[in-house]
Structure formats: structure tokens, C-alpha cells
Specification:
The protein has about 180 residues and is mainly alpha-helical. It has five helices and two strands. It has one domain: Four Helix Bundle (Hemerythrin (Met), subunit A) (Up-down Bundle). The chain has a two-stranded antiparallel sheet.
Amino acid sequence: MLKPETLEIWLRGPLPKVPPLLQPVAHALLQARDELNAAMHDFPPALLNERPAGVASVGFHLQHLAGVLDRLLTYARREALTAQQLAALNVEVPPLAIDAKTVTKLVEAFNDTVARALNQLENTDETSLAEVRGVGRAQVPSTHIGVLVHAAEHTTRHLGQLLVTAKWVRSIDMR
């Protein structure tokens, strides 16, 4: 018999407080959180800004994962970005200032953002999912569910890029 902790998050069953239509969003975010934490365990901070073949760095993806998820959650709530969010967006561009705690801080920031996302999902009324939400400064129209699904999709896309780049830079570092 399979142990639940060995299964991917989506196969472990519904999350009790998350509305049924938002379960896939929550599952994707939790899976991303688990995979990111595993991949960044003992990741050397000195490799955060490495860009083999010009790809985006692990440091960029770590910053962007938390930042874009936070911004998309804001749009889903029909709120404008704050000055703090805009400032954070402007510093997502590498290179990062690095110290011994940088990886830990960035992983914690992502974990905190996922926790806030789960709380928001738990408190989302499913009847609002077809409502229009404006995205970005231009307030491009989407739907509430569209923004939330994109938040999960965008997170998994950047996680995949981070995972590949992290393996790549570690393999180069090992030579």
C-alpha cells in the first residue's frame, strides 16, 4: 500500500478548507512548494546568479516565484499593487546581493506567499469565480478563476525552469 506522503499532493485527496473548484490551484501550489524546498536544500548561495547559456538564474526564479504569485493574488482580490509590491518587482532583475542566508530567505518568502495563497483560496467564494478581474497596470480583463489558475500555472512553469537551472549550475560547479 502506498503511503500518502509518497504521493504527489493532488493524489493525497482534497484539502478540507479549499473550495472544490479551487483544489487544483491549491494542489499545484503545494506541490511547487514541496519541490522547491527539496531542490533548494543545501543549494550553494554562490550559484544563485549563475546563468549558463544565458538562461534566467536560480536567484531570479526564486524572487519571481514569490513576487508574481503575490501580485496575481492581489489582482484576484481586485486590488491594486502597493508601492512595496512595485518596488519588489523592480528588484527581481538579477544579480542578487548574496550572503549565507539568501537561499533560506528566498525560500521562506515563497513559502509565506504560498501560505497566504492557500488562505485566500480557502476564503474564496466559488460564486465569484466567473467575475471579471483586471490584470496589470492596463487592467487587462480576465476572470477570478483565470487569475488563480494562471497563478498556479505560472508558478509551476518557473519552478520547472528553476529545477533545471539548479541542476545545471550544480553540475557545472562539480566539475
